[in-house]
Each structure stands twice: as C-alpha cells, then as structure tokens.
Description:
By secondary structure, the protein is of the alpha+beta class. The protein has four helices and five strands.
Amino acid sequence: MKTLSDHARSILAQAYAPYSNYAVGAALRTSSGNIYSGCNVENAAYPLGNCAEASAIAAMIAGGEREIAEVFVMTNGDTPGTPCGGCRQRLAEFASTDIQVHCGLLSGEVATYTLGELLPFAFSLTEES
Ligand code: THU
C-alpha cells in the first residue's frame, strides 16, 4: 500500500517550478483515511504561484472533506523544508494542533513536527484550537 510519503514523492514529480527549481509535493491524510495530494504551481508573475499545501487542500475540499489528520511535505532541497507561514495557517484551518507534519527529502530524511509546534497561536475566529 502506498504510504503518505509515497504520495508526496509521486506528486512532487508533477511540480511546475521552472522559476525556483524547488519542487514540493504535499500529501494530506484525512480523518476518513483518504489521501489528497498537490504540488507547487509557479507563474511568470511570481506572486501568483501556488504552494503544494494549498493545492493539496484544494483537492481535499473538492473531494468533500475538511479534516486533516496527517501531512507529508516532500521537497527536493538539501534540508527538509517546513511549510511556509501562510501554509501553516492554511493547514490550521482544517487540522488540530496535535497532528503530525512530516517534512521529507527524496533521500529519505524526514523531520516531524506537530502543527502546534510549527504554528503556535494560529489565528482563529473562535476560541477553539
Ligand atoms: N513552496 C511550497 O510549495 N510550499 C511551502 O510551504 C513553501 C514554498 C513553493 C513555492 C515556490 O513554488 C517554491 O516552493 C519556492 O518558494
């Protein structure tokens, strides 16, 4: 069976990153056990590019789900890249602070954090976290 890491690795290969050459693949496992994935999609007008996490979240929402249980972000850099600040907030919209966010490299190196470690005091309109 394909692991969350396998899904992130597969989708990283689809990344469109001709400007940064930094390919990212994100895979989300939801509370129902389904996996949604997405890659970064850059644009010649740089600010219009999408992060891999945003693409994966869009796929999850399109699939009718809203609860992220685990995340794997795979990058092609030298050290495991953590989600950018904006993507931490995007993930926090659909996940609790105790979920694991695995940050991996194609080499197999992985660093794991909780979402709460990556984004303490996430912005929220409610008192819940
Ligand atoms: N990128 C992501 O896909 N996710 C992140 O959390 C950080 C950055 C992408 C955006 C851009 O295409 C490339 O990595 C370099 O910043």
